[in-house]
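Quick one: structure tokens for this chain, please?
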Amino acid sequence: MKELQYLSGFANEFANEALPGALPVGRNSPQKPAYGLYAEKFSGTAFTAPRAKNFRSWFYRIRPSVMHGEFRPLAGGLLRTAPDDEAVISPNQLRWDPFPMPDKPCDFIDGLVTVATNGDARAQFGIGIHIYRATRSMEDRFFYNSDGELLLVPEQGQVTLHTECGVLRAGPGDIAILPRGMKFRVEVPDGGARGYVCENYGAKLELPERGPIGSDGLANSRDFASPVAAWEDREGDFELVTKLEGRLFACDIGHSPLDVVAWHGNLAPCRYDLRDFNTLGSISYDHPDPSIFTVLTSQSDTPGTANVDFVIFPPRWLVMEDTFRPPWYHRNVMSEYMGLIYGEYDAKTGGGFVPGGASLHNCMSAHGPDANAFKAASSAELKPQKLSATMAFMFESRYLIRPTAHAMTSPALQKDYRDCWGGLKKHFRDKL
């Protein structure tokens, strides 16, 4: 059975059904939908948002979403949401080793650990940055997040996302996006999975404008895949978990809430293969700004200044002449959280930045190539070079990124990160 459809909700509206005739024709809410289904609208924006920014879908489901028990508070573990009163701010450059996998059975929800946050989920701006770690699947447990949409960046192991709209599978090199409020459960077919999560409280993630680049390049909308309708009709003793204003709540539910038989609209989960990114770069001189590697953006109220940008550093050719090819040393008004999915990042070749790890350079925190990368790039023969088998990424935000108390006291925090620049030497001469 076909599981994915392309030309995603970033550009088009979908219409699909798991049973013939389940989608009504000509109206969204007929008096009696086919197959005894219920019509339900899923809105991701205000009803009156401009047409180009208005996101909603219609579900035709076996039972309406109102059918569940009363929510009760649930312990949040290491999950935090902005504003986080315990968060720490530091001008220091920070870097973490990978957070270890749990030593006991743990599903996607229980394994979430927050590294940092910014903004305010209540006011719908900013982000949360988390690590997911799962050693078992969610079979009879379901989750939806009222605080923001979720961008999953797998680093280890596959995840199978069973959603109200159908099934998505993602592994290292893919990303998956789950809209705010979308119900889902996560299976880990490899027995364990780990990755990064950007919880976006702000404007919905979208493709950036290309400007002078033109009509093609970067991430193309045709490569984003959304699931086709596939329903679960299961009854039993299940649990539905939600997150609202940073707190987890759970209720009993007597059936699977993933019982949508047909749907149409432009608000749906999607998957994207980062290896499909059409990388652009300099073919003459100078290392270009990393903004040319932006896959997705969530805009703030200041044009060109993002609530969060999702940027990648994929395999690519370096051909610049008379140029220091790695990223230059820099200080940036934007705050940068960086992770590594696989391979080696070309500006950190001296070790310490490994898959599953991360670094944080907040507003105006100086950073750049380690001493090893600087020495190699300064003396390298500048012939065409292919950076292959590498995939790093960055969550970049206009708001200060505040690490959690747990992240700042974790054994994963590297105490010696700044030593990577310790080998840089003075080369100044007052004569040419």
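The domain at 277-419 is CATH 2.60.120.10 (Jelly Rolls).
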